[in-house]
Amino acid sequence: VINVSGSINCVCFDKTGTLTEDGLDMWGVVPLKEKRLDVPIKHIQDRNVFVLLKHGMATCHSLTLINGELSGDPLDLKMFESTGWKLDNPAIDHHQLMVYGIIN
Fold first, then answer.
1. For residue 77, pLDDT beyond 60
2. Distance of CA 55 to the CA centre of its chain
3. What's the longest Cα–Cα distance across the chain?
4. Which of 42, 46, 65, 99 could form a disulfide with 28 if both were Cys (CB 3.0 to 4.6 A apart)?
5. Per-residue pLDDT at 40
6. How far apart are CA 95 and CA 24, in angstroms?
7. Which region is the signal sequence (predicted)?
8. What average pLDDT score do residues 74-81 get?
9. Rg (CA), the chain
10. Bigger pLDDT: 88 or 19?
């Protein structure tokens, strides 16, 4: 650590409690507008403006239902839950051997 500290330009500290508490919280999102940070949005499920962002957050994950309970990566879980969407039981395509989740 001492050997590389002379080349450090920026230090970031985690004050959210992720190091001391078990679990994550989703505060919100900060969209970009014309290559600049825009106004932070706390509750994205209430916004119709960010349809593509919400669709991406609701579909780009590795979550699945196990015994009716959503399961997967903790970050994916929080991100998906923040969209307010619901994952239904997956449907299986036997011809392509793919499993699809139905998102509402």
1. yes
2. 11
3. 58
4. 42
5. 83
6. 38
7. none
8. 84
9. 18
10. 88
Q: CB–CB of 26/44 below 8 Å? A: no
Instruction: Please tell me the distance from the alpha carbon of residue 10 to that of residue 83, in angstroms, as a whole number.
Output: 32
For CA atoms 13, 17, 20, 24, give the dihedral sign: negative
> Which residue out of 14, 22, 46, 93 is catalytically annotated?
14
46 is catalytic: no
| Neighbour count for residue 83 (Cβ, 10 Å) | 19
Give the residue from 76, 85, 103, 74 showing the smallest Cα distance to 45: 85
For the chain, the average pLDDT equals 73
Q: How many residues does the chain have?
A: 104
Would you state the pLDDT for residue 65?
83
